[in-house]
Amino acid sequence: MIDDDRMLIDGLTAWLDGVPEVRLTACAATVAELLRTEPAPADVVLLDLLLADGSDPVQNVRTLARLHRRVLVVSVVTSGDMAVQMIDAGACGYLTKDHDLAALLAKVREVAEEGVALSPELALGWLAARDGERPVLSPQERAVLLAYASGMTLAAAARSAGVQPGTAKNYLERVKDKYRKAGRPAYTKLELATRVREDGLATGAPRTPLHRGP
């Protein structure tokens, strides 16, 4: 957990004593501190959006995502736009701090199982932000897509994403299926590269508007 709220950390630590399948393995006030002191990479990283060191939330998420960490952002900020920014940066979920610990545990499980976890009240805003055109990709799917669409072979993309070639192939098939269901088929590497550019996936920038009709 990366947070500087000692009350929250102490409360969560005490509460998790009664949850045998989940353990809080390390706590830190900054991303750098966690990466320097944690005994081993955890299955899920809980990350506060606004840390006392003034670090940029997007960069914090990107730093962890580049290390293939599954990040659940937990914040007092209830903005749907902020949730979209965090997911685009590579977070696996976003939960507002007005939820109870049971809700937090449920989202931790979703993220650990490679899902995308959002507070229920943010879900509609998330869907609206996608305009029904941009599919929601998991961090692993996005990592393989970016590597493959950049020109890498499937094997090289798998190495870049830290997964086996067979797993990378499965991720790509899921990405293609999601784009097909969104009405934006992408069957070839060139078409996938076009979708990456349209959606600003490589930089986190807003996607290029799609032109419909003549």
TrEMBL record:
SMART domains: REC. One of its GO terms (molecular function) is DNA binding. PROSITE patterns: RESPONSE_REGULATORY. The modification 4-aspartylphosphate is found at D48. InterPro entries: CheY-like_superfamily (IPR011006), Sig_transdc_resp-reg_C-effctor (IPR016032), Sig_transdc_resp-reg_receiver (IPR001789), WalR-like (IPR039420). Gene3D superfamilies: 3.40.50.2300. The keyword DNA-binding applies. Keywords: DNA-binding, Phosphoprotein. GO terms for biological process: phosphorelay signal transduction system; regulation of DNA-templated transcription. Residues 1-112 form the Response regulatory domain. PANTHER family: TWO-COMPONENT RESPONSE REGULATOR. This is DNA-binding NarL/FixJ family response regulator. It comes from Nonomuraea endophytica.
